Amino acid sequence: MSVSPIPPELLARLRAVSFPTLGHLLEDGFVDSGIRALVPNVKVVGRAVTLQVTDADAVAVNQALASLTPGDVLVIDMGGDHTHAPVGAVTACAAASAGAAAIVVDGVVTDILELRETKLPVFARGTSLLTTKRLGAGRSQLNIPVRCGGAVARPGDLVLADDNGVMFLDADTAARVVDEALASDQAEPATLARLRAGEPVTRVLLGS
Fold it and tell me: 106 labelled as ligand-binding?
């Protein structure tokens, strides 16, 4: 299925916002904390390319890699398989070469040292020596709604991810909340300065 491009000005505003601030404004789309940054010190804003893998099929992953364009985030739903790793050194290198922004796996990955050298942001539940196989079973599906860490990712959704976690949201929702989030971020240094100066919490945070 085709997906619409995300407006560049929205992408720029999202790159400027602190993602946890969005947690003050939204409730849905947050991936559970078991999926974390395996390559640290990263911040990702990208567009979801989704893949539902069945039968631990590596061919399906390679087909998804061939579809990536710059700024895409490959989101892989392993269907509850947290044993077979669909991503490793070659996979990450291919994604990085295509200009991908990141890979998110509801499952495990492998070749962690090589992934760190590639420096492509990778988010997963952990690592494994057991990998997917070149089966070509044909039952996996590309660019359909998938479930990743309890949240639904749809093709073309925004993927926001950093060392705190991962979230998915549509462009309309992002446009609705991003300016409020940026305003909150801009107000935070003054709030911190007041607390550090010894001003009472009741006055700073409760307004009393």
Answer: no
Which pTM value belongs to this model?
A: 0.93
The position carrying tokens 């919490």 is 201
pLDDT tens digits, 58-105: 999 999 999 999 999 999 999 999 999 999 999 999 999 999 999 999
**Could you please report the per-residue DSSP string of 161-182?**
EETTEEEEE-HHHHHHHHHHHH
- Which residue segments constitute the domains of the chain, with CATH numbers given? 8-204 (3.50.30.40)
**DSSP H or E run through 91:** helix 89-97
How open is the CA angle 175-181-186, to the nearest 5 degrees?
135
- Among residues 150, 165, 144, 141, the alpha carbon closest in space to that of 106 is found at 150
Which residue type does 59 have?
V
8 phi and psi angles, rounded to 5 deg: -55, -35
